[in-house]
Amino acid sequence: MEDIVKIKKGHILITEGDKSTSMYLLKSGLLKVYKDMPATKGTYAIRTIEPGEIFGELSFIDGKERSASVKAVEDCEVYILDYSLFKSMLGKQPKWIRLVMKSMSSKIRDLSEL
Fold first, then answer.
1. 16/18 Cα distance (integer angstroms)
2. H/E element, 22
3. Domain containing 12: what range?
4. For the chain, what is the domain count?
5. What would you report as the CA-atom Rg of the chain, rounded to the nearest whole angstrom?
6. Alpha-carbon span 85 to 83, nearest angstrom
7. Do the Cβ atoms of 50 and 101 come closer than 8 Å?
8. pLDDT tens-digit profile of 28-82?
9. Which of 47, 23, 1 is nearest to 105 (CA)?
10. CA distance 56 to 60
11. DSSP class of residue 29?
12. pTM of the predicted protein model
């Protein structure tokens, strides 16, 4: 693991449309994943993230913009997983593993845009 960060209730950890440099593992607390809905000036809740879950991995893997925002529903502790460490570890794996990961992230992104 990398750094542990304390996040206060109400803090937005990930903003839809941002570039990715990290993915995360929730140690404690509860987070909400949502998309802004400009037409209605509201938000659409996608899911909650509970302790033990990894999040932010989609754009981390495919290098595209964040597909949704993540906000703390309560005070949280989050491990930050840095891209350079991940890339180094991934570089030791066969190339086909990277291709599978990119293919899966592309399919997930396509589904999340429906």
1. 6
2. strand 22-28
3. 3-112
4. 1
5. 15
6. 5
7. no
8. 999 999 988 877 888 888 899 999 999 988 887 888 889 899 999 999 999 998 7
9. 23
10. 6
11. S
12. 0.80
Query: For the range 47-51, what are the long-range contacts, defined as Cβ-Cβ under 8 Å and sequence gap of 24 or more?
Result: 48/73, 50/26, 51/26, 51/27
Question: Three-state secondary structure along 44-83?
Answer: EEEEEECCCCEECHHHHHHCCCCCCEEEECCCEEEEEEEH
The amino acid at residue 109 is: R
How many Å apart are CA 70 and CA 46, to the nearest integer? 10
Closest to 113 measured CA to CA, from 35, 24, 14, 21: 35
Supply the CATH number for residue 46's domain. 2.60.120.10
